[in-house]
């Protein structure tokens, strides 16, 4: 496909994008810089030091919280994205009775304030006698991640011909293979976007997680919000920077693997 | 229509329902049932210090949304909650508009890159959000405060003095924009990415100017993404309370705070639940009117 | 002195004895605010008793209460503040202590032996305590010194407009306002509540913001001149800026006490008792004080506390100001309802 297309002539697109990335990364630079702060404070610079990284290494609770967060976010993203992809495929095509209602239910987690979902879910869990643990956090996260994964995939599908897969199903014997060969590559950008949004939403959730967390299942946001009372220290910046580094390694790795495959 | 065709269609529909079933089951059990409990909570008598008294029904919570008891115990119209709802709504509208303004060109730019670069940039949009919300907000405080980094930066370009926007609505908008931009950019990008650029070139060949190409080809294609992005930005920002508290100076309540307050210090669970359902009703009403007007369901488009 | 030491030595022996049995049983789930309990102390506890301990976090008394009410939380030890102990006891959310396993309760200072919210320590034992006063920068206020009253805070001089910060919670603001106006803080009379509301509404335009976090940085950096503050936060800010002063207003200042308690559905009750008893040893509680910068309630802990901390009048309230401390008081739901109304009107 020719990417040297006339759209380049649209003024403002490239500067806006660069502005966007600058806007996105300036606070991140500040955040990482402060993780090397020698002082006590997350907003006052007091000389260079690595002591907060040492503090992270010496605090098993914060490390465990970070691990819990990464585990929950990865699993919740995986499950929610699979459910959302299937649902988006099911919702695509000729309209049927009740479709709008189903679409509404898929978007419902967005509409309920966090604290209400949190208390309601906890009450439900205690009614059915489900013991709180990391698993209950996972269930709650899958629920609120679904719309974040679903809407981009749905947007991707819109305007696509629903008969594509059906036609493919006629050519290849199994519809499953048709899905992998035809639908999946077409959907991939939507799935990728949905998964990334679900991941960051899960990584940041505090209220719902707190309520449905069992003992020993503290996640990073819960740990961090709990630290507000004593004042946020650069330790939080240090652990955030470490996670940032992990994410960048992850991106670099997938980029590298992508190039190798070519 | 032949019976064979009908049977085939019925089979297809069953197939599609089956595909949606896992997600619907998940949401049905772990969202709809708990919400049913909450609906019940909203019509129960509240406990003395939080919780509810099971079996004692009361519509007090819904009444108190519009009315309050005056000193002599008579009901008078109460605009407090309506004011709070209105302010939250306004902030959300501004945030959504801002996200669209920055997000659309950015998504267009992403869609115009070659595939390798595109995926890399896509990741780069979300990487900052692997850090925690609170530390991001603290970074903004550092940037925006009087004599902070933004002021120093402006100083380098010869602007003296201070921006002075921390702890104002402007800072809240900056914070909300920052938090929600990826939720606008990514859906629009997914819609635009499938654009066949030959169409656009053809349009140019036929003498269409940029505005027309944008209007006739690009925006219609991006529309599903814009709708999805708007939903993902508008609704969550409506319930956001952390950013207004920290960047706005906590001088006024948002819907999110108000509801949080009822489950916390106010110990008034029924009112908290009722407020959430009023909010739900308002948003659904807005979407319904949007559907009627544009004849295209907001959540569900016809293929 | 000897009188005090004997039970101490005895309790040490006892806790050692307990630890021998505790080796068999194994875990403790402790929930507290983050950074309010030193990680090293938990390691020491594990080494001393052989119990494997984990620390979970929560962000406020309110969310802890809501979580316990909704049926959640499998924690063994939690640290709610005074008012919440009374609510939780009334709602049957806490377990009664087995005091035969808490011999160290005797170590509590005399004025902490009999607390209003839990008179016989049936359900709670104090962890750390503090006061909610306010602080100012003596280098920046007119005249360099302010009256020891709530007046400068609620009705600041015109020069300080936009330089004053209040804490962002109903309780922290309503109680001092009531103390300042001489109104019963638990008033059920809307007219009295209206007085408080008027005072707060009048104060609002003078404030830079309502904010309960980052109080240390704002004062240490000199970003604002006056800040309603907890004394432990003041101590930290003071370390970085000499000119700061902490005020015990003469109208009275609210005291908060955070307490160990065992939730009803705790799984490891035995270990919970071992932990609470262990924490009531002067050496251990002092380590918590040194870390969190708040005072504790255990006799003899001063021998292990940092000198700078213990000598700070903001932390260790001087004798002549003890009568200004106002303990907590649980108000009726009707009174609390009025408070919420005032808050909503203040911020609508």
UniProtKB/TrEMBL annotation, chain A:
Q: Where are the transmembrane segments?
A: 12-36, 70-89, 101-128, 134-153, 184-201, 207-226, 238-257
Briefly, what is this protein's role?
Required for the activity of the bacterial periplasmic transport system of putrescine and spermidine.
Family to which this protein belongs: Belongs to the binding-protein-dependent transport system permease family. CysTW subfamily.
Report whether Cell inner membrane shows up as a keyword of the record: yes
A GO biological-process term:
transmembrane transport
Protein's name according to its UniProt entry? Spermidine/putrescine transport system permease protein PotC
ABC transmembrane type-1 domain sequence ranges:
66-254
Its domain of life reads Bacteria
Q: Where in the cell is it found?
A: Cell inner membrane; Cell membrane
Q: Which GO terms describe its cellular component?
A: plasma membrane
* Tagged with keyword Transmembrane: yes
Q: Which SUPFAM superfamilies match?
A: MetI-like
Identify its membrane topology class: Multi-pass membrane protein
Its source organism is Pseudomonas indica
Q: Which UniProt keywords apply?
A: Cell inner membrane, Cell membrane, Membrane, Transmembrane, Transmembrane helix, Transport
Automatic annotation (TrEMBL), chain B:
Cellular component per GO, a single term: plasma membrane
Give the record's GO biological process terms. transmembrane transport
Q: How does it sit in the membrane?
A: Multi-pass membrane protein
| Keyword terms, alphabetized | Cell membrane, Membrane, Transmembrane, Transmembrane helix, Transport
> Keyword Magnesium: yes or no?
no
All copies of the ABC transmembrane type-1 domain together span 85-290
Keyword flag Secreted? no
TM regions (residue ranges):
21-44, 89-112, 119-144, 164-189, 217-243, 271-290
> Where found, per UniProt?
Cell membrane
For this chain, the family text in UniProt reads: Belongs to the binding-protein-dependent transport system permease family. CysTW subfamily.
- Identification of the protein by name: Spermidine/putrescine transport system permease protein
Per the UniProt record, the source organism is: Pseudomonas indica
Organismal lineage: Bacteria, Pseudomonadati, Pseudomonadota, Gammaproteobacteria, Pseudomonadales
Automatic annotation (TrEMBL), chain C:
Please name the Pfam families in this protein's record: SBP_bac_8 (PF13416)
**Which subcellular locations apply to this protein?**
Periplasm
Chief location:
periplasm
- Residues in the signal sequence: 1-24
Query: What does the record give under GO molecular function?
Result: polyamine binding
Biological process annotations from GO: polyamine transport
User: Taxonomic classification, please?
Assistant: Bacteria, Pseudomonadati, Pseudomonadota, Gammaproteobacteria, Pseudomonadales
Which superkingdom does the taxonomy of this entry point to?
Bacteria
Question: What name has this protein been given in UniProt?
Answer: Spermidine/putrescine transport system substrate-binding protein
